């Protein structure tokens, strides 16, 4: 199976998945990085790891539809069977969703359905919860609403600030995201209603 990762920023999850592929833990090819931000650090990581990068900026298209159609063309050309969003800062629209139904994963840095949106780490800290952590889920048309595949608990101590908490959450992300990608590639994720079973 060929995998594409979509990212807009740092790319530590890209790196974690690439590492698991390299080690043979995930038996698939990381065939493409789709990046919408020139200058994103993830592009450097892809270069180093010799993963093809497809840099595509929405501003160069007349509409989001045209932008996504161009992405789908590239995904088809590369025979992509799984998309993993990893810090991709755009809502995935109907063209990609239709072409890859139940084949798009995302990682969110809070225990969904709590703290949806772009600042899940900060919001959990400000709210005062004692436990937070990443969620890997399938992507649907909503924002962070798709069925949940795996979550990992991270406890928040009185000493934590946004930086220290982010560090703990990222560490947990780098464990569960490659694990979920592996399960998907092995065909072990079964969706029933809102539940995902590992079989
Ligand atoms: C992660 O915290 C992920 O949960 C969120 O975006 C961040 C991406 O980090 N969706 P990185 O670019 O993989 O380092």
UniProtKB/TrEMBL annotation:
<dbReference type="InterPro" id="IPR002376">
    <property type="entry name" value="Formyl_transf_N"/>
</dbReference>
<feature type="binding site">
    <location>
        <begin position="89"/>
        <end position="92"/>
    </location>
    <ligand>
        <name>(6R)-10-formyltetrahydrofolate</name>
    </ligand>
</feature>
<feature type="binding site">
    <location>
        <begin position="11"/>
        <end position="13"/>
    </location>
    <ligand>
        <name>N(1)-(5-phospho-beta-D-ribosyl)glycinamide</name>
    </ligand>
</feature>
<feature type="binding site">
    <location>
        <position position="106"/>
    </location>
    <ligand>
        <name>(6R)-10-formyltetrahydrofolate</name>
    </ligand>
</feature>
<dbReference type="InterPro" id="IPR001555">
    <property type="entry name" value="GART_AS"/>
</dbReference>
<keyword id="KW-0808">Transferase</keyword>
<comment type="similarity">
    <text>Belongs to the GART family.</text>
</comment>
<feature type="site" description="Raises pKa of active site His">
    <location>
        <position position="144"/>
    </location>
</feature>
<feature type="active site" description="Proton donor">
    <location>
        <position position="108"/>
    </location>
</feature>
<dbReference type="InterPro" id="IPR036477">
    <property type="entry name" value="Formyl_transf_N_sf"/>
</dbReference>
<keyword id="KW-0658">Purine biosynthesis</keyword>
<comment type="function">
    <text>Catalyzes the transfer of a formyl group from 10-formyltetrahydrofolate to 5-phospho-ribosyl-glycinamide (GAR), producing 5-phospho-ribosyl-N-formylglycinamide (FGAR) and tetrahydrofolate.</text>
</comment>
<comment type="pathway">
    <text>Purine metabolism; IMP biosynthesis via de novo pathway; N(2)-formyl-N(1)-(5-phospho-D-ribosyl)glycinamide from N(1)-(5-phospho-D-ribosyl)glycinamide (10-formyl THF route): step 1/1.</text>
</comment>
<feature type="domain" description="Formyl transferase N-terminal">
    <location>
        <begin position="1"/>
        <end position="181"/>
    </location>
</feature>
<dbReference type="GO" id="GO:0004644">
    <property type="term" value="F:phosphoribosylglycinamide formyltransferase activity"/>
</dbReference>
<dbReference type="GO" id="GO:0005829">
    <property type="term" value="C:cytosol"/>
</dbReference>
<protein>
    <recommendedName>
        <fullName>Phosphoribosylglycinamide formyltransferase</fullName>
        <ecNumber>2.1.2.2</ecNumber>
    </recommendedName>
</protein>
<feature type="binding site">
    <location>
        <position position="64"/>
    </location>
    <ligand>
        <name>(6R)-10-formyltetrahydrofolate</name>
    </ligand>
</feature>
<dbReference type="GO" id="GO:0006189">
    <property type="term" value="P:'de novo' IMP biosynthetic process"/>
</dbReference>
<dbReference type="InterPro" id="IPR004607">
    <property type="entry name" value="GART"/>
</dbReference>
<dbReference type="Pfam" id="PF00551">
    <property type="entry name" value="Formyl_trans_N"/>
</dbReference>
């Amino acid at each position: 199976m060929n995998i594409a990762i979509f990212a807009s920023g740092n790319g530590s999850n890209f790196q974690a998945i690439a590492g698991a592929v390299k080690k043979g833990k995930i038996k698939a090819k990381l065939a493409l990085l789709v990046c919408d931000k020139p200058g994103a650090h993830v592009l450097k990581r892809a270069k180093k790891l010799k993963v093809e990068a497809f840099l595509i900026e929405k501003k160069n298209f007349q509409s989001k539809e045209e932008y996504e159609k161009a992405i789908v063309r590239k995904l088809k050309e590369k025979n992509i069977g799984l998309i993993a969003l990893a810090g991709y800062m755009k809502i995935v629209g109907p063209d990609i969703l239709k072409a890859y139904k139940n084949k798009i994963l995302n990682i969110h840095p809070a225990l969904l359905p709590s703290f949806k949106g772009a600042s899940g780490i900060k919001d959990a800290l400000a709210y005062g919860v004692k436990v937070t952590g990443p969620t890997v889920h399938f992507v649907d048309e909503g924002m962070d609403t798709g069925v949940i595949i795996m979550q990992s608990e991270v406890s928040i101590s009185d000493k934590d600030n946004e930086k220290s908490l982010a560090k703990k959450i990222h560490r947990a992300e780098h464990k569960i995201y490659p694990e979920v990608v592996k399960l998907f590639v092995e065909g072990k994720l079964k969706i029933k209603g809102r539940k995902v079973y590992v079989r």
